[in-house]
């Protein structure tokens, strides 16, 4: 008879932690035991203000009873049902709710379990679309330097973060990259969208000239790049990218895993920035992170081309065991209800002037070399220590946690993205603790 042995001590040894310095963490662990509203609490009961919405994902704050009860009800009704050649009502309801809030032109929803899966799904749909329309030679995928599209081999290949790629050898073939849009010499301390850099989109024309327009399937970008330090698109950049893609029959994919569900003051970044993609990925805020779930939205034309252009039987040979999982779908429905009832995008939009004023108070702080903001996101870039890039920001991260604030760091950039229920008093506390940490940590 198999038994679960309980004699092994909980010494933190068994869990190989993701994106973590495991040796350092396990020597001095930072543990979170519960969460409510705008705060986490440590096992000892110490309060930690959440300045990052968990990991860009808990947009409605923590411990929302409406979401919890929806998950509990669904677990009692049906814990799991397959969506391969089968269906269950709440998955269709969740898809309809998502479709109802999508930017005009997007109407079909494919469920995944994470942003990484959404990125790979979007790329596969793009390839399937071109093949279905008789252009199977369109196999080239274009990403952007400093882009992050998760950790699947598709998203990692199209992504442009060297540290995420160098351990794993060859990526996908037929991938190219646009330059990133970070121009500190011209756009330092910009409020919102920077003025300079729209012309960087024209690099796509160079790739068209190099490879041939009829070989490029899709371009994938984040409306605002979060994980590489809050890189905000220059005014007119995304519009120019949209024009070039349309001109050459290239699909434009927006990775809205971070910018979706109210983070920029609108349902999706596409609305705030005035550009509609052909395909859009999402995750994180879709379920307020209560249950893992992601999704890919496409235009009706893409869906119909793939489905109606296929022979009888399965049209897209892709999917996941947990696509449209009943508990995740229940969490999504409840989350989107909260999203609408509490007008989370509107709350975010109303907070933007106060947020921008607060974070740009660091413009003149010693050791701060840039501040970037858009929506309820901010990146505060620190002067790196000579010979030790990233060390200073990591020390700021640790000091903030000791002083009761959770921030996120990437390189020497402190990234902030609080839940959309943030209030003035929370903003004041975030600034107070972060300012103290920056001052206390040696250069």
Brief overview, please?
The chain is an alpha/beta fold and 443 residues long.
Which structural category fits the helices and strands? alpha/beta
Distance between the termini: 59 Å
Write out the CATH superfamily name of the largest domain: Type I PLP-dependent aspartate aminotransferase-like (Major domain)
CATH class of the largest domain: Alpha Beta
Largest sheet properties: 7 strands, mixed
* Percent helix: 25-40%
Fold-level CATH name of the largest domain? Aspartate Aminotransferase, domain 2
Poorly predicted tracts of residues: none
Number of strands: 15
User: Number of helical segments?
Assistant: 16
Spatial extent as radius of gyration: 22 Å
**Beta-strand percent range:** 5-15%
Mean pLDDT, as a whole number? 96
Shape: globular
- CATH architecture call of the largest domain: 3-Layer(aba) Sandwich
Counted up, domains total 2
Give the arrangement of secondary structure elements.
Blueprint: H1 22-27, E1 34-36, E2 39-41, E3 47-50, H2 53-56, H3 65-77, H4 89-101, E4 108-112, H5 115-132, E5 140-144, H6 153-158, H7 162-165, E6 175-178, H8 184-187, H9 203-211, E7 216-221, H10 237-248, E8 251-255, H11 269-273, E9 279-282, E10 294-298, H12 300-308, H13 326-341, H14 344-359, E11 368-373, E12 378-382, H15 391-402, E13 405-406, E14 408-410, E15 413-416, H16 424-440
Parallel strand pairs: 3-13, 5-6, 5-7, 7-8, 8-9
Antiparallel strand pairs: 1-2, 2-3, 4-10, 9-10, 11-12, 12-15, 14-15
InterPro entries: Aminotrans_3, Aminotrans_3_PPA_site, PyrdxlP-dep_Trfase, PyrdxlP-dep_Trfase_major, PyrdxlP-dep_Trfase_small
Cofactor: pyridoxal 5'-phosphate
Protein name: Aspartate aminotransferase family protein
């Amino acid at each position: 008879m198999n038994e679960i042995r309980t004699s092994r001590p909980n010494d933190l040894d068994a869990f190989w932690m993701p994106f973590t310095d495991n040796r350092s963490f396990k020597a001095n662990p930072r543990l979170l035991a519960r969460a409510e509203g705008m705060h986490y609490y440590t096992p000892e009961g110490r309060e930690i203000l959440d300045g990052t919405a968990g990991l860009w994902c808990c947009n409605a704050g923590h411990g929302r009873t409406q979401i919890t009860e929806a998950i509990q009800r669904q677990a009692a009704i049906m814990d799991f049902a397959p969506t391969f050649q089968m269906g269950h009502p709440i998955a269709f309801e969740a898809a309809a709710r998502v479709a109802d809030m999508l930017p005009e032109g997007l109407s079909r929803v494919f469920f995944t379990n994470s942003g990484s899966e959404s990125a790979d799904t979007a790329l596969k749909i793009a390839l399937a679309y071109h093949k279905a329309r008789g252009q199977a030679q369109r196999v080239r995928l274009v990403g952007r330097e400093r882009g992050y599209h998760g950790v699947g081999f598709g998203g990692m290949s199209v992504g442009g973060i060297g540290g995420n790629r160098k351990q794993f050898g060859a990526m996908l073939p037929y991938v190219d990259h646009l330059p990133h849009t970070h121009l500190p010499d011209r756009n330092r301390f910009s409020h919102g969208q920077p003025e300079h850099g729209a012309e960087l989109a024209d690099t796509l024309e160079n790739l068209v000239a190099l490879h041939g327009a009829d070989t490029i399937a899709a371009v994938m970008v984040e409306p605002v790049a979060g994980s590489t330090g809050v890189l905000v698109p220059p005014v007119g950049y995304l519009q120019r990218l949209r024009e070039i893609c349309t001109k050459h029959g290239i699909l434009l994919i927006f990775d809205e895993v971070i910018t979706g569900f109210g983070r920029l003051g609108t349902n999706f970044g596409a609305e705030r920035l005035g550009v509609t993609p052909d395909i859009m990925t999402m995750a994180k805020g879709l379920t307020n992170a209560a249950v893992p779930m992601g999704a890919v939205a496409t235009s009706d034309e893409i869906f119909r081309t793939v489905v109606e252009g296929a022979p009888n039987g399965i049209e897209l040979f892709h999917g996941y065991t947990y696509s449209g999982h009943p508990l995740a779908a229940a969490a999504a429905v409840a989350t989107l209800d909260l999203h609408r009832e509490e007008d989370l995008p509107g709350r975010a939009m109303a907070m933007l002037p106060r947020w921008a004023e607060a974070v740009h108070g660091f413009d003149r702080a010693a050791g701060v070399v840039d501040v970037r903001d858009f929506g309820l996101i901010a990146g505060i870039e620190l002067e790196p220590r000579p010979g030790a890039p990233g060390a200073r920001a990591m020390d700021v991260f640790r000091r903030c946690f000791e002083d009761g604030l959770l921030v996120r760091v990437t390189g020497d950039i402190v990234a902030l993205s609080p839940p959309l229920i943030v209030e003035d008093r929370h903003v004041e506390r975030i600034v107070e603790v972060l300012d103290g940490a920056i001052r206390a940590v040696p250069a």
